[in-house]
Amino acid sequence: MTRTLSAPVTVAFDYTRSTGPVLGRFLTGLRDGVVIGGRTSEGTVVVPPPEFDPVTHEAVTDFVEVASTGTVTSWSWVSEPVKHQPLDRPFAFALVTLDGADTPLLHALDVASADEVSTGMRVQIRWAEERVGAITDIQCFEPEQGGRAASEASDQSRPRDEEAVTGVITPVELDYLYAASPEESAFYRGLAEGRILGQCCPTCQKVYVPPRSACPSDGTPTNEEIELPDKGTVTTFCIVNVPFMGQKITPPYVSAYVLLDGADIAFLHLILDIPAEEVRMGMRVEAVWKPREEWSTTIENISHFRPTGEPDADYDTYKQHL
Amino acid sequence: MRDVAVVGFAQRQMEEFDGSPTCVEMLVPLFAECYEQTGWTRRDIGFWCSGSSDYLAGRSFSFVQAVDAIGVIPPVNESHVEMDAAWALYEAWVKIQTGEVDTALVYGFGKSSAGVLRRTLALQLDPYTMTPLWPDTVSLAGLQARAGIDAGLWDERAMAEVVNRSLTDAEKNDYAIRKGGSSVEELLARPMYADPLRKHDCAPVTDGAAAIVLAADDQARDVAERPAWITGISTYVDPISMGTRDLTRSPSTANAARGLDLDGLEVAELHAPFSHQELILRTELGLADDVAVNPSGGPLAGNPMFTGGLIRFGEAARKVWAGENTKVLGHATSGPALQQNLVCTMEGRS
């Protein structure tokens, strides 16, 4: 048995950003198949255009169209591409100074092996088939192919009669192998056996469930496992009325902090089998477990909590835990 | 200015930490070591400052979870930077300078192995023109290494010499996760990984944590026989774009060093996660040939993300405590291809 439990987790979010006038101009150009640079106060043509001049700090307003062909000024071989890079086979990342520009642009270069790329080599843009106004409208660079490429580029660079790009959406997706702490792992393994395991702080004797590696009050490592009953008291709760993506229960329903008997910290679970408006602070509840054959190392083994029918707990018994 | 010294240091480095990315169980014993070194309890710490990243942990507010390792009743004075913890040390140094506190414990932590580190770090780049391409850290460093090779400023042999010296020195470092020098020839015979970089040119993906204790004036003298007094500390930033700066230089490092007195420097712990970056830093700092660089083995032997820089400060300070050296330098970097740099000199006074 490994010391800790772990599971794959993917965190994903689409970042939506406004571009402002300078990057908007650049990305509009890419959508229309042309590369736009910005001329700085020192006369340098920079691609992508900087929003503000590096010397005068004035907004950059002088835009210059540069070529879609250029020269590699540095490169690095990607032998093991990672997810969402421009190419899913080995390729080079390259700095390419486009003809008409003075500084290089970072992008991928599609060649079959590191033997086929060198500093100083001539390359051209391979445009993406669908262009939306993003840096990925340049699919990658490829070795320059002479006259044929030039005409293709000019075909593709016909400005389209569309509005300027003012925003970009960048999807970000990160994959993790997420591990639980040793104490959390014991908690989840306990749940797989129908037991609820907390940890006790040796300094202040507080009992934490789900357990924590150290007592948040005094920083002492928790070192004593405590088995807790599956009965407790609602300390506070809210009625969920708002629908959201992935919601499993039809609103309105109650999400509550349940203080298990003997615990010093409440944990969040559902209160069902009772009309939402009848849930109250101090209400006594018990866990409703799913059928044993469905159990695994998850808090979802407990389907929800339901009223026990006992008299409500005195406020004094849980006021320290609000 | 108040005199502030490094008086405590503890670290952990490992290839793969099999616990939670909140790293609480790694931090608790580190703090215990710091209490042991100073004779203090947590209540003697005036200010806590950490460096870490939610992107590494894969969860939001991961640094708040880590605060469990401190214990916050009564409440503590606490802050956080989403940078290497060396910058947390900078914040703590400033905090002590304000006179608000006299002591600080600075810590960093990160479980780099939970995701694909070189990919995750694409999120620190320009979100419009860089991140959508997912340029990985190793590739960006490769572009920088190639630029210097093409310009004739260094070659693969010079990079291999850095690696060989680092991995040889790392044999004496219990915390190093990659160690064992061989020869420049043997290193050069190994295959390319991200041409022009071989795997040994790149710091190993490392999980870990570190903590440093700072104290002002008499507080420092009370707890350390020979405190490592911070005599200068400075940080600068270069543009993030790879196209608008000379990748073979590090102006921010030179700027940071300009305000410091480096005369008589004996040891420099440089946070160069790629072999060629040490060569850039040496030049920008103007290090004399007799300065010992990374006697700990440096980041090529182990580089926990968000801690690798802070560890350089700790390793340098230990030389002063031990009386082995009198004037040492710690350096930390953050961002792609040496974009941000922090330089700090420390001295022992007999």
Tell me what the structure shows:
The complex is a heterodimer of chains A (322) and B (350). Chain A has 322 residues and is mainly β. Chain A contains 4 helices and 18 strands. The model of chain A has no long low-confidence stretch (mean pLDDT 94). Chain B is of the alpha/beta class. Chain B is 33% helix and 23% strand. Chain B is built from 12 helices and 13 strands. Chain B has helices at residues 24-38, 54-57, 62-66, 85-97, 117-120, 137-150, 156-169, 184-189, 217-223, 251-258, 275-285, 308-321; strands at 4-14, 47-51, 78-81, 103-111, 192-194, 197-198, 205-216, 228-237, 267-269, 292-293, 303-304, 327-334, 340-347. In chain B, the strands form 2 sheets. In chain B, strands 1, 2, 3, 4, 7, 8, 9, 10, 11, 12 and 13 form an 11-stranded mixed sheet that branches. Chain B has a two-stranded antiparallel ribbon with strand order 5-6. In chain B, helix 4 crosses helix 12 (308-321) and helix 7 packs across helix 11 (275-285). Chain B is globular and about 55 Å long. Classes of the chains: A mainly beta (322), B alpha/beta (350). Chains A and B meet through strand 1, helix 1, strand 5, strand 6 and strand 7 of A and helix 1, helix 5, helix 6 and strand 5 of B.
Shape of chain B: globular
Work out the largest interface and the residue count of each chain: A-B, 66 and 61 residues
CA-based gyration radius of chain A: 30 Å
Residue-averaged pLDDT of chain A:
94
How many individual helices of chain B? 12
Oligomer: heterodimer
Which spans of chain A of ≥5 residues are poorly predicted at pLDDT below 50?
Answer: none
Query: What is the CATH fold-level name of the domain at 4-116 and 205-223 in chain B?
Result: Peroxisomal Thiolase, Chain A, domain 1
CATH class of the domain at 4-116 and 205-223 in chain B equals Alpha Beta
Strand order of the largest sheet of chain A: 7-6-5-8-9
Question: Helix fraction of chain B?
Answer: 25-40%
Task: Characterize the largest beta sheet of chain B: strand count, sense, and whether it forms a barrel.
Answer: 11 strands, mixed
Distance linking N and C termini of chain A: 37 Å
Shape type of chain A: elongated
Q: Secondary-structure element order of chain A, as H and E?
A: EHEEEEEEEEHEHEEEEEEEEH
Category from helices, strands and their pairing of chain B: alpha/beta
Percent strand of chain A equals: 35-45%
Strand content of chain B: 15-25%
Helix content of chain A: 10-25%
